[in-house]
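Handout for the seminar on molecular recognition.
Each group receives one record of this type.
Step one: identify the two inputs.
Step two: read the structure output and locate the region that could contact adenosine-5'-diphosphate.
Step three: write two sentences on what you found, then compare them with the reference statements printed after the record.
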Amino acid sequence: HRIMELIFGWVEADRGCIMLVDPDTKKLVPKVRRTRGGARTEDRITISQTILDYVTQRKEGVLTSDARDDDRWNPAASILKAGVREAICVPLQGRYDVVGIIYIDTSVTPREMLQHGTVNKFTEDHLKLMVAIAHQAALAVEDTRYYSAMVQAERLAAVGQTIATLSHHIKNILQGIRGGSYLIEMGLSQHDESVVSKGWKIVEKNQNKISALVMDMLTFSKEREPDLRPADLNEVVGDVIELIESRAEEENVRLEWRPAEEMPQLVFDPEGLHRAVLNVVTNAIDATAEREEGGRCVEIASAYLAGEGKARITVVDNGLGITADQMSKLFSPFVSYKKGRGTGLGLPVSQKILNEHGGRILVESEPGQGSRFVLEIPAVSPGTGQHRVGKDEG
Ligand SMILES: Nc1ncnc2c1ncn2[C@@H]1O[C@H](COP(=O)(O)OP(=O)(O)O)[C@@H](O)[C@H]1O
Ligand SMILES: [Mg+2]
């Protein structure tokens, strides 16, 4: 439309139209029509096929001042029947191909010609400039098409990548369950309870994994209203510690939990916060996997900051830290640096939960030294009536 405005502002055309080649059918499809009086029009414009063929096949612009005198046209051709006296048609010549055409015309009746003299409305200069405009426009059209094709391809690649990551993860869990079940079966047939209980532990661990994965996927995929109610943040974090303790012990990670001494009942989504804290603590434990000197250590602390109106959970580890490159994609879904053992959902999900509360997650890290994750929520007291923080009433 802008191109049409431009052209009409500068040449005395009666009608104009831009047609683009459909990438699939290779046919010209009208995109913009305009007439002199009304700005944009839905009225059909008949364009002689002769001109269209000439322009698209020869890939050159054409100015026809009087169809009958112009020996490029067969007098019987459609240009005469359409009654066109003057027309300019130029190809939208891009880098690779003709992506369409721009056409303008004006019809001069014999009476008009007598009144105004036989001055041509369209000149070679008009044609030259139209060719230049058309070339620029074609480049823009090509860029847009190229870009949207890229976006489409990227989206498909992302879906494939997502499915690959998830399948791999689920496959690992299934393998774990199969291994555990095998042990249980063996223990049962040998009447050896210790083998049964070993197998059961493996099954249980993998059950937790798959339910965590499903919860993460659910939290991530839908627009969820946080289930806000009065709860005790220390209790929520305490539950996470209890859940993760046995794993930490198994892996020789020293878990240090320092609950805030003063922690009033606050309004938040206890299940959501549980998920977020669990994800961050799990990551912290994972991060310490290769630490040798000084031992693996994860410290968790809570704090109530009455002055700032915030509550805060801090998780510090002495793990491998986060590089600047990783940091930039830390919260992107399905980005994991755990060699296929992670889903990359933990942090985006946790961030979503904190955002739903009007809170945030802060990260500091020194590669090789460790990381510090801070989960912050606004401290909303029960009974203040202010229980929809960050949402429509917030
Ligand atoms: N405490 C941490 N120390 C070092 N790297 C971390 C830490 N927490 C998260 N990361 C990095 O962020 C990535 C994304 O984390 P997350 O979204 O939980 O996915 P996942 O744990 O499934 O890999 C992890 O793969 C890891 O590389
Ligand atoms: Mg994680």
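Reference statements: The chain has three domains: 2-149, 162-221, 229-378. The pocket of adenosine-5'-diphosphate (ligand 1) is lined by residues 279, 283-284, 287, 317, 319-322, 326, 330, 336-338, 342-347, 371 (CB under 6 Å).
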